[in-house]
Amino acid sequence: xxxxxxxxxxxxxxxxxxxxxxxxxxxxxxxxxxxxxxxxxxxxxxxxxxxxxxxxxxxxxxxxxxxxxxxxxxxxxxxxxxxxxxxxxxxxxxxxxxxxxxxxxxxxxxxxxxxxxxxxxxxxxxxxxxxxxxxxxxxxxxxxxxxxxxxxxxxxxxxxxxxxxxxxxxxxxxxxxxxxxxxxxxxxxxxxxxxxxxxxxxxxxxxxxxxxxxxxxxxxxxxxxxxxxxxxxxxxxxxxxxxxxxxxxxxxxxxxxxxxxxxxxxxxxxxxxxxxxxxxxxxxxxxxxxxxxxxxxxxxx
Length: 301
Fold this sequence. Notes:
Elements: E1 7-9, E2 24-33, H1 49-56, E3 63-72, E4 76-80, H2 93-104, H3 114-120, E5 130-132, E6 151-155, H4 156-163, E7 183-187, E8 194-197, E9 200-205, E10 212-216, E11 225-230, E12 235-238, H5 262-278, E13 283-285, H6 290-295
Parallel strand pairs: 1-7, 4-5, 5-6, 6-7, 12-13
Antiparallel strand pairs: 2-3, 3-4, 8-9, 9-10, 10-11, 11-12
């Protein structure tokens, strides 16, 4: 199944940059997935489809599905990923499909989706005009439909992987989640606007003020990106699924049992590990670490 949605190239820097701008970040947990534990941490390394299917039938640990609100002093509220759609609370197959629902076993309490949490913060969903997607896997893109007025930023490699080819579910995508005539914009980490930052080899300064940077971190998916933001006195990295659990920032820890590109995943993880080592005061948010999000503050400033 192909998609009708189209994407255009994003031209950066975007307007709204302010000299020495600092942002704040508010993590929001939007429910849980219980897909096989070995996908996130496998002592034996990469695992095959048969082992994954067997693990699906067993007891697996529910893990948080986060999204993030960035508040920029001039641009305003920015969303990173969209979390789980409110339909997950009543009929997840409408949003994830039968296979995605069976595989991930999602749970979402009524009123804990991103739109509801934004309203609790006195932000109407329509006020979100910019959404940065770390990638388009079904747990991150689930609630795209709730933000029809926003511009969605995704890497060109991720858009290509998500919208073309056969059997998207096998790659983690559910195309009806993003097959809308929305404003999708792509970035590629090979142009004149690409530069290194700290330990990251390829980044894009989104507003030209250093407050929000996109960082190429492929491997988990073909075009995965992370988001580096400047807080008042340190950086915070929204790592997406470039690292599932905080413990994986340490050398020698168990790695995921499945990635789309193990070589690139390890390279991206190494950039994050070096950043963690060189800037220990900074924060790196892992993709699905229950303990991390249970102990995270309401806001990073």
